[in-house]
Amino acid sequence: MYSEWASLQDEIQCDKANQSVLHKFPPVVGTTVATSVVRHIALSLSIAANSSEPCQLDSDKEVKWAMEVLCYGLGLPLMELDTIKECVNVYCIWLSACLPPSPHQNSVPQPIKDDPNPYIQDMIHHLLNLFVPRPGSDVDSVRKQAVFCHRVLRQIQAITKESTILSRESWETLLKFLLAANDSLLSPPLEKDESTICRTKEQLNNSDDIGDQLCERVLSVLFEIWLLACYKCFPSPSLWKTFRAMCISWRHHESLVVQWHKVNHALTSNVLNFTQGPEYPKLTLADDEAQLIPTSMTYDCIAQCWFRFLHIIQNPVDLSRPEIIGKTHKFMQAAMNSETLVDPTQHECLSKLPLIFYKAMKGVSVMVNAFLGIPQTQNRYEEQLISSSSSNSKLTLPPSTPPGQRKSSRPMSVFSSSNKGAKTANTSAPQPKANTPMLSSLIFHEPRQSPAPNRPKCDSILHLFGAWLFDAALARVKFHNCHKMVPEQGSVHSDRRSSSLTDSRRNSVSMDYHSETSGVCDNTYEMGRAEALGTLCRIFCAHKTGETILPVYYSRFYMAMYYGLQTSEEYLSGQVLASVLFNSCDILRVDLDGVLMLLPHILEAIQLVLNDLPNKYKTNEMTSIIEYKNVELQRACVNLLLTTLCLPLHFKDLTIRDIVSSTDTDVQLITFISLKKKIIDLMIGALRNTTDPTNTQMLLGGLMLLVEDMAVCEAAEQTTFQPQDLSLDSENAVFSDTSNTSLKTSSSESSFKDGSYHRLGNPANDLDSAHGLFGEAVTLICHRLLSQWKTELNSALAAMEILAGLAKLAISPPNLLMCKCTVKWICEFIVQQCNRPAPAHSKDLHSTIVAAFRCLSLWLVEHPRLLYDKECLHVVLEVVELGISGSKSQKPDIQSVQLKDTKISPAVQNRASDPPKYKQDKQRQPASKRVQEAAEGLLTCIIQHVGAFPPPCGPESLFSLLDEKSLLKYTKGNSCIPEHGTPFRYYVLENAIIVGLLEQPLGNIEDLLPTVTALIRGPFGRHAWVMQLRHSPRVKRGTSKSHLADPGRPMPVDSVGFRHAAKPRNFPEAVDKVTPTKAEKSIPTLESLVTDEKRPKLNKLKSFIEKQAQFEAQVSQKKQQEMKSMPFPNKDTECKPPKITEEFQAARLFLSHYGFLSLEALKEQTNTSLPPSLVTLDTTNPGLTNDLEMLDAITARDNDTVHVFYVKSGQRSAADILRNVGFQRGVQAQFLEFLHSLGWPVDVQKHAGWTGHISTSWKISQPEDIQDRAPRMGTGGSIYDGQQQVLYWADVSSEVAFIVPSLENFNRLQNDGDKSPQVSASTVSEGQGGAKPTTLSLERPLGELRVSKGTDSPSSPHDAPVFRARRFGRSSTVTIGPDTKIFVVWLENFEDHENFPTGDFLSVTSTGLDQYTPTSSSSMRQEKDIFVIFIHALQNGLFRIHMEGQTGRISMAIPLVDGMVVSRRTLGSMVRQTAINIGRRKRLESDSYQPPHVRRKIKIQEIVDKYHLKMTESEFYTALFQDVHK
What we know:
Number of strands: 15
Strand order of the largest sheet: 9-10-11-8-12-13-14-15
Oligomer: single chain
Strand content: 5-15%
Number of helices: 52
């Protein structure tokens, strides 16, 4: 930079302008003269200051003679402090002559006032004598000398700031004076004894070395005045070159680096302000730094100063080379004068170079961060260094061996609480003590923050700082033979650190790293090296999409990374490795050319931190600081690990290029697929060892990605793994294990360890397959869940999310035994949580139980055969019972191995032989209402959906697609609901189920039997049943008419057999032989009672009887004769069958036969406000129909909506972003494939599930309501904007609509405003449901999709149907919870995620639920309830994930994790799972959320309150026999 300019260093050092004529005389003479003259001058100045008399020195000759004496007086020994003080006072007063209003006009000689510049220049030269060290002086004298120097410096500062008459010569004299003063104080090496190596600020003030006391002050004044000179009188290139050359001699002072960085940071902040704009992230400055730069300094001047000051100390990497720092003239002179010091590089003051080197690199790091736009933290690194250096308790001395000869200390000191040194290499050499604080106490990793989007290119930053950073990153590294470079003959290492920036750039690509370290890995300077390499990592991780970096920078960076990632004891540096891992989280996800060659070394480093070190230090007591750093470092390693998971299966047999090829290293060809086992082991081991909840969730997300990617890959390749440890068929194995996998109810950790976990482990070689990894993953997650994660909310929720995801994986062959064990482990987790002590029960605990019940239902639905196992079914139903009632009716037998670990005595625990406690005998005390509701949901899922999902109507609806309107179309003689009433009878059972009974048979029913059609509406859906009362099975041929018709009379038979005239006896013959008893004679005969008077009457009665008998005999004989004469058969007497009944009171029969109809069911319950068990609804009230429609609009599942956007490079406008999906050529082909993997397309008009908007969801479409619309072809995804189609996915508990908003809808909303349909709060619900069709092809092109004709979308509200409900009674208490918006944004340029206009899409992403959520304002929704998943396609075919969204107590959902890199195979599934889990977590966190079946139950109770038809028992029975309107 200054090669063509001469340096003034020799002129300054040899300048005699500070020599007085008195120096020619003996010291005694000079001292005597100076003492007398100076005293008189000071006295005259005092008199002049107090009077109006002018100074007596009124000529130039007199003033110059006096100045000769004052010059000598300033250099007197410190014994003459009074004389020196008076000399300082005189010169300070005279220097004030150049100030605008001189405060000492009378005390300044007239010649000086007339032309002050020549005199000021001489005085400045003379004042240099004051700064000359006086060896042998006592501490008090040195302190007073420092005080005088401080006064002079303050006066000079005042002159430079306020004076307006200083000439260029005066400015140059001032600058030369400051350079000379600094050189005289700072050039000599510091001579300190061992007791003063590590000194505080107070100890420095008590030092007998004037250089110590003035070091920081003279440097700060020099830099401050130099900056001021640049503003008022820019220094010449010669002065700049001199400044730079003289700084070389001062670099062993820490204060030089500190002042250098203060100026650089202040200048850098100003440079960024006018180069990057005021909106660019600011570099945080201290108050003293911000005041260094004059406010009116021009941009050009600032730029010139910034560049020159940046290189003022030349190459800061020289601070790691004592052989260079110690070869200055003063160090050589000190070595020659010393009797013990032979090599100047071994001077004791150089032991501080490691800390100085670190400070230099840290300052460079701060400037690099400023250029990258990374906001600086408030904890300044200087404050940390000061606090670390000032505390003796935090100070640990490294080995006393000189830095150049020092071997590696304990390489992993960053992870431990001590730093023990190794033996010295040369015991004969002097061994001064070092004074570097413990490295682990100084290293500080700032929180990772994203760089600014408009940051400079990496090449630009590397042009500025690359030469230093690359050299520093490899400072004192032991190189492999292939990397060593033999210097050319005649070359000198110092020559390559030229003052020219061009030379610096040229030399930055060479490999001469001073290999004279004799092959010894010296970690003395690892702190600065770590900072430099960490800074390089941040630069390369700031690589923008499509940005190019020079290959030479790539090569040097990878070389530095190679040595920084070494894990062997010979090359390992703990500080460097920690810095690399902490700052290179993005290195594998920013499309760096050739970066994958570092993959094996990165995995080795991750293994050291995540697996080896936790096991090594598991028993050591570590301070909280070290634990915090380890957690942060482990998190960085987890971030790195998440970027490597898909690489083996993506690149497979591709060979990784070797970065090292030498004779002393064994080089092996490594393929990506060979690293699969290592990555799996890393993931499993890290999950076993980690204790931090955040790291745990990240690892769980990575484990899910690993298992799913392997399973999908094997399925695509059609490879089936045959487990070696299963001797039986897998289907039979699930039913054969009834003892080893029995559920244990003990909640202790030891009981689980003794349980089935250790008996079901897969062999190690099984982890290479999805089958084995699935079993290992499930086993590990359940083990950790039961033993450690059960008390941590987020970890437990993450485990449940992963288990739910694993349940849906198609593993070949199915691991049914592990599925059974998983179900039982989840049940055990629920039991443990429910049985925890009462103080432990909280909302978080119950949230984990609710999540476990939901996870359990998914496992049972996906693996319905598990319930064929008697033991598994028993365990599941016991847990359901526990959740609903709070206790079990019967507990299983507890083995002795578990009893000894439980706190409950064996006598208290239930035995298997104990009789069960029935439901009516138990008091219902569930853990909470939420837990009870979750258990009820599981029970309903078992009864309705396990083995029967998806239902016949498809996964889009768990309800029957029949309602009153649909059924009445098929009744005989009816086509619509009559205006005068409905033919349905509505009854409410147990205040929870509404049964609508239709007694009219449907058109397809021919049998004339009692038939009833029932529409059953309960908390879990709407179901339609048709029931008949039959007296014969359907399997018999013929209809009911054939069984009820007259079969006809049989033909008479002539042969009737023989007639016997035997008279029938009333009693057997043996009765007559029985001897009568007296009791039989107790009743007298009639004859014995009749007297003579009554006998005529008796005779008369007998005659009547005889006549009547004769008459009857005659009539009978006559009738017999008439019958014989009549033809056969007689029509009047012939038996005829009754007429077949065609109308039945089917509703009464239904209620009666099913046991609902009883007097007890109709009675009002006492001591409660609940209605009777059987209630009739008022069908004449027209509001009943509307309320039933509202009830049907509350789905039985949670629903979520995901809006997908496509952002081209540089787009920031919402309209531009929405325009991309209008045409297929406007998006990448990968984006269309991603859309198809999210779900399957459905027609909005025909769809019965969730469509993304409340106005078009959960409806039963009628053929006449479907409109014909022209399909849209060739779109880039806008066909799924909700107008015609949406992408839909559902399972038994969730349903998701994926919508791609279009520009058409956006423009309509912008023009018309948001006219969302007005829906009653009672109609609003959230739900999810359905299962993905097995025929969905991910490769299906968009043009081949079925395009259906549909109505307007929810985004066109002026045509959407409007549901308005009449309000009766109390208002609805149904609450739907948070309205969480989930965006998926596809980015062509990853940096565009910083500028994505989230708030502009709130209108186009409305779901109709916005106005019914607790959040009232859109701004609040934008901040709290919007989660964005950014997807960026990397050049290698993988996809980078970035997550944004605020979280509360419950953190971000998984399996996707911020920074994860996923494969094409799993992208759609992982995004879908994450979106569903985000919605679930937000609902768990919300206090206003109610599950769908609870909302339906509340709505049913509201209907009962509104339409309850109160009747007495007699009125109810009378109404049963009355006909309804038909």
